[in-house]
Specification:
The structure holds three protein chains of three kinds. By secondary structure, chain A is mainly α. Chain A has one domain. Helices cover 83% and strands 0% of the residues of chain A. The two termini of chain A are 30 Å apart. Chain B contains six helices and no strands. About 4% of the residues of chain B have low confidence. Chain C is an all-alpha fold. The chains are: A mainly alpha, B mainly alpha, C mainly alpha. Chains in contact: A-B, B-C. At the A-B interface, helix 8 and helix 9 of A face helix 4 and helix 5 of B.
């Protein structure tokens, strides 16, 4: 399975590079923490526990969205220095393997941030879920992948753009809105137990469908983007 | 090109004149001839401008999508044809933004007057807003990306947008049937009374003809710019050859 | 309706009707004018 081999090589390279400097993950962690604090101040969740539970799904995902954007923006920065990108284009591995490796690496970084963020979030928002919290183990990865896969792709799109950092959210947010809707509705459904399991299951299925469709599209189109000139 | 120009010009002016004429007839029908709506009164006349814009705003994105596909297909095989496809793609994206913004704004004004609210997050409005946002982001990408890559990247975004639109529609439709909105904006074709038909038909045809007019006009403008760029590039090459002689 | 009642600004409904028709004309007309302006200001090509 040479393709899987290539993906794992790219993944290993990104993880190793990140491990040596750790600036991306530190930045993301701190940024996510700050966002949670800002939202906490803005909405004063401890005084309004019912409201807090209803909006916390949305707040969690908005915080993660902003945190991922900061990381995604410079996930391709490594490829820009020392003309690494040209070398990548000439390498025999398919372009989509580079994309997948990077997307999985970004996914792992965001998952680490989520793992740290979730307890902090619960503390600051005084949350206790009324529904089945184990469903979050399904919703979090599916939702994160939806943001990361498109985010990695659009970050690559903006590589040589003038206003690179601005372009990523401008492209990512509209495209991600259906996925955001699904993840927020599912999370709120779990936290507030307002939705029954069939409805939550439907949202999760929609999220999974979105993931499959856009992963396929990104893999198919990455070659075009890499060789856009 | 010199010989074709006069004929094309005549056709263009004729088309423009026809679209204005049909729109004037449509205006007359909508404002003066159709009786006022039983429930809403005269405010209901906004329907005749809002609904055609909404319908056409769903058609032009597909022109953009198909043009982008042609662009990607011809990119390596026939660059000149690819350039033409790209010009059509950008024209269609701009026209889509124009029509969907008209749909959103007139809908909002109508909603406030007839039902008391400027906006609601029901399925139709949210999907239309998404459509608007997607094509604005397409135009932003074209503005921000570095030249040379712009066309290819834009074509890729267009594919994402075209795939996203039905997904948005389905996801919001499911959402909204779970939490029905208290107020619904009048849907097209639901209980359109016979007395409303002439005004509606004149307007939808009129806005379609007008839409095609500005689409082709914008396309022609883009082709002009492309040709001017090519000429400038040619000049530069010729000038550098002369210097090196 | 008549021309007089169309331009009658006294009721909110009427103002909104007029406003929405105005918006349509402004946006479509504005876009078409922008294209036309650029058409005449685009660098002419030597045929």
């Amino acid at each position: 399975m040479k393709y899987v081999r290539h993906v794992l090589d790219h993944l290993g390279k990104d993880l190793r590079l990140e491990w040596r400097s750790r600036d991306s993950i530190n930045g993301m962690l701190f940024f996510a923490l700050l966002v949670v604090v800002v939202f906490g101040l803005a909405f004063d969740p401890t005084s309004y526990p019912t409201t807090a539970r209803q909006i916390s799904g949305g707040i969690l995902w908005v915080a993660l969205l902003f945190a991922s954007i900061t990381a995604l923006n410079q996930s391709w920065a490594r490829e820009m220095r020392n003309q690494v990108l040209e070398a990548q284009r000439m390498a025999p591995s398919p372009a989509s393997a580079l994309f997948l490796g990077k997307a999985i690496a970004n996914m792992l970084f965001v998952l680490v941030v989520e793992a740290v963020l979730a307890p902090i979030f619960i503390v600051f928002f005084n949350l206790h879920a009324l529904g089945n919290l184990w469903l979050m183990a399904l919703i979090l990865p599916l939702g994160t992948w939806a943001l990361v896969v498109n985010g990695t792709f659009f970050a690559a799109l903006g590589l040589r753009a003038r206003n690179r950092e601005l372009l990523l959210p401008l492209l990512l947010l509209p495209i991600s809105l259906p996925a955001l809707l699904a993840m927020v509705q599912a999370t709120t459904g779990v936290l507030t137990a307002d939705l029954d399991s069939i409805q939550i299951a439907t949202w999760i299925k929609q999220l999974a469908g979105y993931d499959i469709i856009f992963t396929t599209v990104c893999i198919l189109l990455f070659e075009t983007v890499l060789n856009a000139e | 090109m010199e010989q074709r120009n006069p004929t094309l010009r005549i056709i263009a002016w004729l088309w423009f004149a026809i679209s204005i004429a049909v729109l004037i007839v449509g205006f007359r029908e909508a404002i003066f001839l159709t009786p006022p709506d039983a429930a809403q009164g005269d405010v209901g006349r906004i329907f005749y401008y809002h609904v055609p814009s909404a319908m056409w705003s769903l058609a032009f994105p597909y022109v953009n999508f198909i043009a982008s596909l042609f662009y990607l297909y011809w990119r390596k095989r026939d660059p000149l044809k690819a350039l033409t496809a790209d010009a059509m793609a950008i024209a269609a994206a701009e026209v889509s933004v124009v029509y969907s913004s008209i749909c959103l704004i007139t809908g909002s004004i109508w909603g406030r007057a007839a039902w008391g609210i400027w906006w609601t997050w029901d399925e139709r409005l949210t999907s239309e807003l998404l459509l608007f946002l997607l094509y604005v982001s397409y135009l932003m990408l074209r503005r921000f990306s570095s030249t040379g890559q712009t066309q290819t990247l834009a074509a890729v975004i267009s594919i994402f947008a075209a795939i996203d639109v039905p997904i948005v529609w389905m996801s919001i439709r499911w959402w909204r049937t779970q939490h029905p909105a208290p107020v619904f904006f009048g849907g097209p074709g639901t209980g359109v009374d016979k007395s409303m038909m002439p005004a509606f038909v004149w307007n939808i045809i009129g806005w379609g003809i007008w839409g095609i007019f500005i689409l082709v006009f914008r396309f022609a403008l883009e082709r002009r710019r492309q040709r001017a760029e090519q000429e400038a590039a040619l000049h530069a090459i010729e000038a550098s050859l002369e210097i090196s002689k | 309706m008549t021309w007089q009642s169309f331009f009658n600004l006294s009721t909110m409904q009427n103002r909104h009707l007029l406003a929405s028709y105005a918006v349509v004309v402004i946006i479509q007309g504005g876009y078409a004018s922008w294209i036309a302006w650029n058409w005449f200001h685009a660098k002419g090509t030597r045929h």
